[in-house]
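in:
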């Protein structure tokens, strides 16, 4: 148990970087086995335009692919790319048997409708889990789809940190399609790391603190620095901070630093466990993207061998 400067007990830090590291090491072994059977998992990332935050994120995906022994392909397109050209690119990747996962980095330039692009991705290659087919599968609990990487990473953090979610009150702040809604769907399933009673709060929630104070597990994904303060949580809460906010800081080398949605120093003494920002949820998102891609490749390999079986059966 860590203690603060006045000897007070502090919540245990959930080390997302270390947990993500273990997952990526295990995946490298699975990639090796798949490669030995003739299938090297391939992830294609399409980056349109030159948003600096997206470029950083895509570069770390590239590195993670290379490190895991996967085939990582990044397609960089100019900011002036038309929707038709982007859709052609997506379709070419759908038809490319060496590519098992396709990710189109958001945000897209304004001439392109993101929903149309997401729907063009083959759902069996949609490792981001945003295609309506995969969103539907997640909601009904069909497990052959793909869950979005950030909420899947949060669930994995809870499981790996020994947090029992069964019957617990879990309060989510944020109802986006990327985090809040799929997070709720994951936590509601009759499954390990789920079976929770889930409350979803958002910007129109009347009394946010009244909800968060009841939470056994609080998951913040609102994109608001220090939204969650010490008076909003109960003793013993598990806190997962999904927020990644840039706040200006003249003393930081880049002129800003990253903070979450939770006032970490104030909330930690009350929490039993808490994720930091950075090195909490962030590294898990990439680890889960790798995991989804390896699973896409394994499912592809299984479909191919089943087809071969049918073809051989037909010949006999
Ligand atoms: P993300 O992709 O991380 O989920 P978004 O910016 O898409 O982030 O969504 C932010 C979410 O946070 C929205 O659902 C919004 O309703 C919620 N939110 C923003 N501010 C507050 C607030 N002050 N209290 C409660 N919820 C909030």
């Amino acid at each position: 148990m860590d203690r603060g400067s006045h000897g007070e007990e502090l919540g245990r830090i959930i080390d997302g970087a270390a947990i993500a590291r273990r997952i990526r090491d295990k995946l490298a072994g699975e990639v090796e086995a798949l490669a030995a059977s003739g299938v090297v998992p391939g992830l294609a990332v399409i980056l349109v335009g030159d948003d600096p935050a997206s470029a950083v994120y895509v570069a770390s995906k590239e590195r993670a692919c290379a490190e895991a022994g996967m085939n990582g392909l990044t397609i960089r397109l100019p900011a002036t790319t038309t929707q038709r050209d982007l859709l052609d690119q997506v379709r070419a990747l759908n038809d490319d048997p060496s590519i098992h996962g396709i990710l189109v980095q958001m945000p897209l330039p304004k001439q392109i409708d993101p929903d149309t692009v997401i729907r063009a991705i083959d759902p069996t290659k949609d490792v981001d889990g945003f295609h309506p087919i995969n969103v539907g599968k997640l909601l009904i609990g069909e497990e052959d789809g793909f869950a979005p990487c950030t909420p899947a990473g949060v669930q994995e953090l809870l499981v790996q940190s020994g947090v029992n979610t069964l019957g617990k009150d879990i309060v989510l702040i944020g109802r986006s399609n990327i985090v809040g809604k799929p997070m709720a769907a994951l936590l509601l399933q009759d499954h390990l790391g789920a079976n929770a009673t889930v409350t979803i709060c958002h910007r129109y929630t009347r009394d946010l603190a009244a909800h968060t104070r009841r939470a056994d597990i609080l998951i913040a994904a609102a994109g608001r620095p220090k939204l969650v303060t010490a008076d909003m949580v109960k003793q013993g809460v598990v806190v997962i901070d999904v927020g990644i906010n840039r706040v200006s800081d003249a003393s930081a080398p880049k002129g800003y630093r990253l903070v979450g949605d939770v006032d970490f120093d104030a909330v930690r003494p009350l929490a039993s466990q808490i994720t930091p920002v950075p090195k909490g949820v962030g590294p898990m998102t990439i680890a889960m993207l790798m995991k989804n891609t390896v699973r896409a490749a394994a499912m592809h390999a299984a479909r191919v061998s089943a087809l071969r079986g049918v073809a051989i059966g037909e010949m006999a």
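note: The CA atoms of residues 188 and 195 lie 5 Å apart.
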